[in-house]
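Give me structure tokens for this 366-residue protein.
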Amino acid sequence: MFAVLGICVAQAGQQFKLSEIKIENPPGFTGLPTYIGVNKVASQGTLDVVVAYGQDYRYYASGSITPSGTNNLKTWVSTLGCNNRGDFVYNTGQSSGGGVRYADGTEIAIPTDSNHRYAWARDINDSGVVVGHYYLGYEEGIPFYMKNGVVTMPFPAGFQGTFTRVDAKGRAFFYTSSGDFEQRAGYWSPEEGFVFSSVGLSGGKYSTLQGMNDQAQSVDPEEDPVSGRPTARVTTLHSLTYLPAPSFSGGGGNPNAPGINNKGQIVLDFTQKFDGSTKYRYHWALWDAPYDEWIDLYAAVKTQVPAGWSFGQVKGIDDLGRVYGTMKRPTGNTYALVRLDPVPEPGTLAALVTGTLILLRRRTRR
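Here you go.
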């Protein structure tokens, strides 16, 4: 369910439509969410979300929301990944471990044994491959790869780390903290085995691997090495690229770069005093890879934001260029989940209409 909040123009003529994504309250939950997190934006726009209710966030649920608005939420679990169908992986705690909930509501548990008692699931792709790690008392442990219900643990004994994401090709990306592969990053797949990064897939000042696509590209929030302004850094297996800082990022800080899509578009937010504000607020930006420029998303939609609402954090971007984030409502410390849809520019739209008319005429003549 989407409520269109408006359409307005960004720099270079780009238009965006601002919509609210409706979240259906799980059974027994009332009111509006007091917290909304987005752990993953799948390539076609299915979201892995966590929502909490009440000022102490005591009531919470996690799961997936598809582009059509279908909610698949499970109470009292945490989630970290979903696929485009709406399947997601979840974790319940050390006593019962992790599992998979499918879009049709059925569930399976991650297999465990006496040596691997608690599975922490991290991600699932459209083929149903699940990755994560067996918990050893910290955030990391022994990585596992599950395909068709069969679990593989490819790393040697003594290794600790985690698989963070699995892409459309079934490649499980990892970083390591101990063992023979200490401080290494890369991916593993049954077909290719280990492929190591020569530069690392995380690091820099903020050391957070935030977003990843199916091209083995990841993005981290960074500061411009010269100006110190917020920007992002793109990492492939063998290269690091610092993007130029947005021209409108002066005085900003605390960058967050949660998403890169398969077209190389990147979303970024940072805190900044701007537009007459005396307090720090979130400013959103979009790196438009084909044109190598930043688009000011705040400027693009600010006139369409409902009265009293304020920008929260940007959360990701899908392959259609749709941007996801949260906004704070004016009362009750509650939040909304929103989406920014790029609108075709008039010239592009006219070309599409003309092409469609030509095709229709040809079919009529036949």
